[in-house]
Each structure stands twice: as C-alpha cells, then as structure tokens.
Amino acid sequence: MIPTSLPGSPFIAYREGSLFVEDVRLADLAREHGTPVYVYSQAAMLAALAAYQRGFEGRKVQICYAMKANSSLAVLQLFARQGCGFDIVSGGELQRVLAAGGDASKVIFSGVGKTRAEMRQALQAGIGCFNVESESELEVLNDVATSLGQRAPVSIRVNPNVDPKTHPYISTGLKGNKFGVAHERTVATYQRAAALPGLRVVGIDCHIGSQITEETPYLDAVDRMLDLVRDIEAAGIAIHHIDFGGGLGINYNGDAPPAADALWTKLLAKLDARGYGDRQFMIEPGRSLVGNAGVCVTEVLYVKPGEQKNFCIVDAAMNDLPRPAMYQAFHAIVPLEASAPAGGGGEHVYDVVGPICESGDWIGRDRRLAVQPGDQLAVLSAGAYCSSMGSNYNTRSRPAEVLVNGAKAHLIRSRESVEDTFRCEKLAP
Ligand code: LLP
C-alpha cells in the first residue's frame, strides 16, 4: 500500500504508482547511481526559500543559510545564486562557501569554539560578522584582529533563556545550554566589546533551537531580544542588525510548523509594534530550506522475520542517515514502486535497519511495509542533517548525491570509493 499523501514537499510525489522527485523517476536514478543515494529537489529548495522571501517582502533582510544542514557544494551554489549568505560554524564551512561561489561578506560565523586559525581565516576572507558566544572569545578575537591590523565585525549571541519545546539535544537557548552569553551579562559584554580596539560591534544574535513547530518561542525570543537592543543602545552602543537565528521545523510525521511567510508576518508585526520594523534583520534557517527537499533511496537486502520483531534490512545505515540513531528521529519510509511485489508475503510490521553492527542502527521502527529483497524504499525528509552528518563508520563509503531540476538530474557527489575513505592514512614503518 502506498501512502496517499507524503509528509513534506509537493515536489516529491507518486505518479502512476512510481515515486518521482520533480519529473525524474527515483527508480531510474537508483538504477543509474546505485543505492543508497540521496536525491534533492531544486524546486523544493527554491520554494522553501521563496516562502521566507515573501514573508520579508519590503524589509531589509539577509538570509544566511545555515549550511550545516546540507553543505553539498551544489546546494550552496544554488543558494548563493539566489543572493543568500551563509551561517558557518567552522573554517571548513567557510572554504566550502568560497568553493561554491558564495560571497564572504554575507557570511556570519557562529559556534562556541572558534579557533584562532579559523578567526584569522575568516578575517582574511572578509566575512560579514562573527557571532561571538562568550566573553573569553571576545578577547581572543580582539587579539587576532589586532594582530592583523583589522577590526572584526561582531554580534554577541545572546542566550535568551526561552524554551523552544523541541528535542533536548537541539535546544540551544536555555540557561543550561552551552550557547551564547547569558541575558543578564549581555549589556556588560557589549560594553567590553565596544571598548576593545580590534572589534566593531555591528549586531545582536540569538538562536533558540531547531525543529521548532510553535510560534510562541519565537515571539518570546523577539521580545527578549528587543529589550536587550533597547538597553544596549541606551548604553550608547549602536546595533545595526538583529539576527534571529534559524530553527523553524518541518513536517516529518504530521508535524505542523507555521509556514515561514506566516511566521514572519507575525514576528514583523511585533517588531513594527515595538518600533524596530525598519531595522536590518538576519536569519539563519537550515532545516526549513532543505529538509523536505531530499530523500534517501535504499534497497532492501534481506527480510528477517522474528519472534518479537520483523526486520527489514536495507543498504542505508546510521552512518549514512544518523538522525534516527542519534535523536530517535522519525523519517517516513515509502516504497519507490507502488505495485505489490510479485510473490511477496503482503504487509508486515518491520523495524527498518541498516547493516551496521550496532542495535542503534535503525532507520525506522514499527513500519508497515510490503517488501521483499531487491525492493527499493525512499526515506523522506532527508535533505537536512542527513548527508551532512554522515560518517564512514564500518568503512562504508558515502552515498552519491543527485540534484534534480525538472526533468534533469545532475550527479553532484559521486559515490565515495573505499580508497577515498583511507586516503589520509599510513601504515606504520
Ligand atoms: N544557527 C545556529 C547558530 C545553529 O546552531 C543552527 C543549528 C541553525 C542556525 C540552523 O537551525 P535550523 O534552521 O536548521 O533548525 N542535527 C540536528 C539539528 C542540529 C541543529 C544545530 N544548529 C538534527 O538533525 O535535528
């Protein structure tokens, strides 16, 4: 049985019983590139971006794609061509942005553990802003910038202490989290930043968490941020931009997050009401731009009935798609072809698991499927934090990736060879 409606993107849908990404049949891509393979819809990414752009129409906004969600070069290139900047968290990500043709001046650098070398690299590239996460980081950045004869543009990332009501591993704006400077320390931290010769205060930043499906945490964060902007400016320090971070959730399993345009219409009304609507804003969306634009296609290797559980063993594993193992995350799993498999034993409830030698290696639990070896399945909503979080555990090569645009499919990453996985290693003498 095929699901009548799939969670996620309208660009990923069945046509006459076959699953398509835009105008390309996934079974054709699986045949050409093998499995597991990631397939992304360009139209779905552009539609997700357009929802933000609609919400911000007529406002001064820089959208900085949080590239950790999916850092494949062709995905970065797509967003760079649409005028996006990038939220980065490492020197490696900066190098990717530049390799993809991104504009360094639209890059903002987040993260609690920036090294001196990364600061130097980012200053030399001329990035737009450092989102500084602690008082000691301010001092180090001042030092590095001074040694280069530069003034580093900075925002302080504020921890607004609001509960985003999401998985604890992806909550970032609560007092107990490692991120940002405590609300109560913010004005003093700005005063210190303004006094340091190697720094130039340009903005304020927050990010409260990820996969947020309610409006309230955002509305609360806006209020807390504006209170701070008022206090910092009263202390004589101008704030040129306000960065609200990312975090908007997507539909994995009937989740109903607000649409980006509807959310921002509301948030902007609040900003207007408080007299801040004409400011320069930044946002750092990741998941909501790419998550529902991707699928991971995998092949059933074995079907293993058991006394307590039936297992459907597939060729994708926790190294390829770590979210279920890491966060007990749900990804819908659907067949590529709707026709009931010839000789198949009908529908059963399975745990869909990978070949890795760990019980935590599962992709989906208790899924009703009619499958037999050789069938192909699509793991949905796999555009964000799947490929980018992949590893080579069990010496498994990283999957190929394909970007679909209408009826065209472009291979944007070839399947890694095993030699690639140990290229940096050496035998001892
Ligand atoms: N800005 C900062 C500073 C962040 O730390 C993050 C995500 C974002 C923006 C983008 O958030 P988004 O719009 O994607 O929610 N691996 C986890 C998610 C980790 C999110 C980390 N920070 C997962 O698979 O659910």
UniProtKB/TrEMBL annotation:
The enzyme's E.C. designation: 4.1.1.20
GO molecular function terms listed in the Swiss-Prot or TrEMBL record: diaminopimelate decarboxylase activity
Keyword Amino-acid biosynthesis: yes
Cofactor (UniProt): pyridoxal 5'-phosphate
Record has Amino-acid biosynthesis as a keyword: yes
Domain of life of the native organism: Bacteria
Family designation: Belongs to the Orn/Lys/Arg decarboxylase class-II family. LysA subfamily.
Quaternary state and interactors: Homodimer.
This protein's name: Diaminopimelate decarboxylase
Species: Paracidovorax wautersii
Protein encoded by which gene: lysA
